[in-house]
Write a structure and sequence with these properties.
Blueprint (H helix, E strand, L loop, with lengths): L9 E5 L8 H14 L3 E6 L6 H13 L15 E5 L6 H8 L3 E7 L2 H4 L3 E3 L6 E4 L1 H20 L5 E7 L6 H18 L2 E4 L5 H6 L9 H4 L4 H16 L13 E6 L1
Parallel strand pairs: 1-3, 1-4, 2-3, 2-9, 4-7, 7-8
Antiparallel strand pairs: 5-6
């Protein structure tokens, strides 16, 4: 007689077929934030070329003396399984994106990045059509919705995260706001404010630390405190399942494909 079905980890996929949008930075900070909330977090870096997430966690392991273990079934016993994907068209990235419970698509505030999910008219800036990527996710979400009742799967929550929006010219920002709002209604993603362009994120990379590692950072300046609050608001905006009760140590592992 088969035993009870194992609960599956909530999959969070950071995907965007363009490099330099802050996927890895956003992914590692969300992972650490969830771990500090008591969640058991596993991370898989599918970008075998740059391996940014994997290296970040390696650096972090050296700093907090944690062991980064590879596991055949990495999601077993964890609350969250986080994937960081390469900034290019990749079959493995497409596969995990279509199977995400929460799909996070970071975008810089520019129409260069917006082109990943939709094309706009050059004069009116109205959305003319969906991109291949947006159509892929739209179809995946429709299939997921049909299997939600029959298979008990979660519906996919697609969140477009606006990174590095602090220095965007106001007229361009308004046009982006309108285009994102229009497209979100057509394909069903939510819009969340992400991480601003801050030197602190780059400075913390060599040590593997984040803005949440209070005991390791010493006294923070006002800008760093604002950045920490910005990170907390991002995590809250993802509306992830409530994790387990906080534990005294982080439970987080990482892997690279």
């Amino acid at each position: 007689m088969p035993g009870p079905a194992r609960s599956q980890p909530h999959r969070i996929v950071f995907a965007n077929e363009k490099g330099g949008t802050g996927k890895s930075t956003t992914a590692v900070h969300v992972a650490v934030a969830l771990a500090y909330q008591g969640a058991r977090v596993a991370a898989i870096d599918l970008d075998s070329r740059q391996r940014t997430l994997h290296r970040y966690l390696e650096n972090r392991a050296e700093t907090i003396e944690a062991l980064d273990q590879l596991c055949d079934e990495l999601g077993e016993g964890h609350d969250f399984l986080i994937f960081d994907t390469p900034g290019r068209d990749d079959p493995f990235a497409r596969h995990v994106a279509t199977r995400a419970d929460t799909l996070v698509t970071p975008l810089n505030d520019s129409f260069v990045d917006f082109d990943l999910i939709g094309q706009v008219d050059a004069e009116t800036f109205k959305v003319r059509k969906l991109s291949f990527y947006a159509e892929l996710i739209w179809e995946a979400r429709k299939k997921r919705a049909m299997s939600t009742i029959t298979e008990g799967r979660r519906e996919m929550d697609w969140v477009v995260v606006r990174n590095r929006s602090g220095h965007v010219e106001m007229r361009n920002m308004r046009r982006l706001d309108q285009a994102l709002t229009e497209l979100s209604k057509r394909v069903g993603f939510r819009i969340a404010q992400g991480l601003s362009e801050r030197v602190i994120y780059r400075e913390l990379f060599p040590s593997g630390l984040t803005l949440l590692d209070k005991g390791q950072l010493g006294e923070l300046g006002t800008s760093h405190l604002v950045a920490r609050q910005e990170l907390r608001q991002l995590v809250a905006g993802l509306n992830l399942p409530v994790p387990v009760k906080p534990e005294p140590e982080l439970a987080m592992t990482g892997s690279v494909a």
